[in-house]
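Sequence in, structure out.
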Amino acid sequence: MEAPYAPSPAQFLDFLFSTIARKPPSIGLREGAAVARYLHALAWDSARGSNRKLLHTLSDVIWGIVLQRADFKAAEREQVVEFLKKNADSHLVHFDVASAMKLTLSLPEPKPRSPPPTLSGTFLSETLGARRGGLRDDLTERISAAYWFLRSANVFKARTLVADALNRNGIPTRSRMSETRWSGYEVMERVRQYDNVLENKIRDRLAGRRRLVQKWKALYRLVDVPNPEMHSEPR
C-alpha cells in the first residue's frame, strides 16, 4: 500500500543514492558450479526450515546464473542425443527422453547466444541495449533523476543538494583530479552526459526528463506525484 505522502527531497535523494546498480562481475563455470554444489550440500545437512530453504534457493539461483552467463561452449547435437540416451534409464527415468531426442534431432540447432549485459542493484535490475552495454553502473542516470526531480519541485540549489546527497551516501566521484567529494560542477557534468543519452534515444529531451523522474518516483513507491514541468536549461 502506498504511503499517503510524497517523498521529501532529502528522502528521495537518499533513496536514489543508498545503492547503485552495477554491472555484475563474471562468474566462471568451475567456480560457480562448485559454490552451488557446496550450498546444496550444506542445505541438505541443515535442519528443515528457513535456513535450509535459503541455502537451497541460493544454490539454484547461482547454478542458473552459471548456466546463463558462465563462459563455456554448448554441446553439439550428437553429444546431446548420446547424453540423453545414456541417462534415459537412470537419472532421467521419469522424463519422456524419447520425445526429447526426437525434438533434438528434428529442430534446427540453436544459434549461439550471449546473455545481454545487465545492471543489478537493490532497487533495479536492468537489461542494457547494445549502445549502453559498456556502462559500469547507473549512477549518471540516478544523478540526472535527482537533479530533475529537484528542478521539477522548484527546489533552490538543486546541483548542490545532489552533490551533498552523493557525499552523504559515500558515493565515490571517480574524478580525474583526485577529488574525493562531489561538487555541483561534477553533478552538472553527469546531468549533461545523460541529456546526451536522451537525445540519442528520443527527440523530445523534456519528455525524456519527465519519464526519467516518473520512473524513479514509481520505484520509490510512495505516491504517484503529478508529472513535473521540466525547465529547458540547467540551472
